[in-house]
Amino acid sequence: MTSHLSSRRFLTKSPIVNVMAGAATRAGRFLIKDFNEIDKLKVSKKGVRDFVSNADTFAEKNIREELESARPDFGFLLEESGEIPGKDPKNRWIVDPLDGTFNFLHGIPQFCISIAHEKEGKINAGLIYLPLTDEIFWAEKGGGAFLNFTRLRVSSREDKDTMLVATMPSSHFDETVQTFGSVRITGSTALDLAYVAAGKFDGFFVSRLSPWDIAAGVLLIQEAGGYSESYDGKTSPFESHNIIAGSPEVFPTLTKIVRGK
Q1: Class of the domain covering 160-259
Q2: What is the pTM of this model?
């Protein structure tokens, strides 16, 4: 598969986004290879419904090496390796090398790589890469959100019967199904958030999250004109480990469903 970066070397003039894109596309090539050889992967149990494979760890190693080469002083928050402090306390990378691991291990083509740049405690840039389709969703704070070279905007649908909402099984699931046209469970939080930013999904909510699940996606949605909050609306999604996200049209209804108000 030919990467979009091979025909147009730079996505943007921003060095940070270029660094993230280079790391993601490099790791993505290895994930595609492993995805086509699922039966050969060694898998070890990491927890209930949570697995780690050679693909996760190898992709994370590749991403870390690429990012360290470009910004050697930045720290890391990695899904597999945890927090690694850097010499520069103001900057760190937040990385999920394979979001949708369960899909990946079952040969289901819904998985992605998520990388965010955090500067002074705030997400400055984010990128979500889908290796199988070679789609790069990216955003910079104040600079808009994009899919490859196309500007993104959240959905403008107003009729609930035509809205498509993504989530995971929860106590709010039945009401969500009854309220909207259709509901999807993809198994990849980062992918869901990217699709909300692109207007493919109208909204999304989920709990039991980690920072690397949402760091890039939250910025994508914000820069695409959407909203995101925690379930209680008071703490940040990073502190509460849950999120409600969507277009201006769907967001009020989703918050009422989740908050029971």
Answers
A1: alpha beta
A2: 0.92
Give the count of alpha carbons within 13 A of 61, CB side only: 8
Element of type H or E holding 183 = strand 182-184
Q: Where are the domains of the chain?
A: 4-151, 160-259
| pLDDT one digit per residue (tens) for the chain, 261 residues | 444 444 344 455 689 999 999 999 999 999 999 999 888 877 877 765 566 788 999 999 999 999 999 999 999 999 989 999 999 999 999 999 999 999 999 999 999 999 999 999 999 999 999 999 999 999 999 999 999 989 999 999 999 999 999 998 888 999 999 999 999 999 999 999 999 999 999 999 999 999 999 999 999 999 999 999 999 999 999 999 999 999 999 999 999 999 987
Q: Under the phi-then-psi rule, with left for phi > 0, alpha for psi from -120 to 50, and beta for the rest, what region is 233? A: left
What CATH number has the domain spanning 4-151?
A: 3.30.540.10
